[in-house]
Structure formats: structure tokens, C-alpha cells
Amino acid sequence: MTRTIRATPLTARDFAAFGDVIALKPRPDKLINGGRCGRHHDLARIDVAEGRAGISLFDAELCSLPYRLELMERHPLGSQAFIPVSQSRFLVVAAEDAGGRPGTPRAFIAGPGQSVNMHRGVWHGVLAPLDGPGLYAVVDRIGEGANLEEHWFETPFTITKGTGHRT
User: Fold this and answer.
1) What is the C-alpha to C-alpha distance for residues 165 and 92, in angstroms, rounded to an integer?
2) Could you tell me if residue 99 is inside a domain?
3) Which structural domain range is residue 67 located in?
4) How many Å apart are CA 102 and CA 54, to the nearest integer?
């Protein structure tokens, strides 16, 4: 049995159920540093329970399409933002909860200059850079407690590039 998902360009509207798209606004909220720097203010909400927000660096291996989706994870105690350090694309996979496991995944391709902030408890795929090994700044919850749930699919999905979100 083959299950295929078509990855579409990442947009704030299509991704809203899963989290925030972090990207430059058409105009900065204000100019700072003597007018030499535009501040695009408050682009995502960091949501943590019993802990603190921290910044980590993740170093992810290159992936390619078609991509075999075998695993999704979620973090019930905090949101998780993925901010590429380089101007490259990456695959974003997310799913609504379906009784304690991921529902049908949606796949998006984040373009250069885009980042995502997964809402607390949202099922998502692992980091999948598409243009070379990826270095990401990750803002998430640091603290005690079980903040990682994983789900391995009995039948994996194949993610391809496309204009629709699934076939």
C-alpha cells in the first residue's frame, strides 16, 4: 500500500492550525540601530509549561523528495520554533491529533527566509533540509517532564512535491 502526500508551499493561512510561519513582514514594525535595521516584531508565541524557553542549535542531515515519512513527534509541554541559519528550503510536515496519534499529515515546503513555530502538542515531522545539511536555531521548552511523544507509522507515507496537499 502506498500513501502519498504532496508538499505545497508554506503559507501562514494553510499552516495556521499547526503553528506560526515566521517570516519578514512586507514592512518592518520599526527601524532601529540608527535606521539601519528593520525590526519585524513578535512573529510567534513561545508557549511553555513549567520550564523555561531556551535556544538550541540543531544540525540536520540533507533530505530529498520523494521523502519517506515514518515518524512524527509532538511536544505536549511547549511550542517549538525551527529557524534555519542558512537561506535554504526545508520540508515541514504537521498533522492534527486523532485520538492520541497523528491524523493525516500535511506537507509544506518552507522557502528561504521562512521559519516555523509548532504550537504546543502539534504532531510534526523531523527536520528535513532540502538544499544541503541544515543548521537550525531551535527555540523550545527546557525543563523536567515528559515533553516528547513519538509515533511510528505502520505504513509510511511518501511525500512528493506538488500543488495539492494529498492524493
Assistant:
1) 12
2) yes
3) 3-26+43-161
4) 26
- Sequence letter at residue 100: G
- Grid cell digits, residue 72: 512524527
Residue 136 placed within a domain? yes
Let me know if residue 126 belongs to a domain: yes
Enter the pTM of the model.
0.90
Q: What is the C-alpha to C-alpha distance for residues 82 and 57, in angstroms, rounded to an integer? A: 9
Number of domains in the chain: 1
- Which residue numbers in the chain have pLDDT < 50? 164-167
Q: What is the pLDDT of residue 163?
A: 65
Report yes or no on 34 lying in a domain: no
Q: Count of alpha carbons within 13 Å of 167, Cβ hemisphere only?
A: 13
Sheet holding 80-84, edge to edge: 19-22, 115-118, 80-84, 134-142, 52-60
Q: Give the model's pLDDT for residue 162.
A: 80
What is the torsion angle, in degrees rounded to the nearest 10, for the CA atoms of residue 140, residue 146, residue 149 and residue 150?
Answer: 100
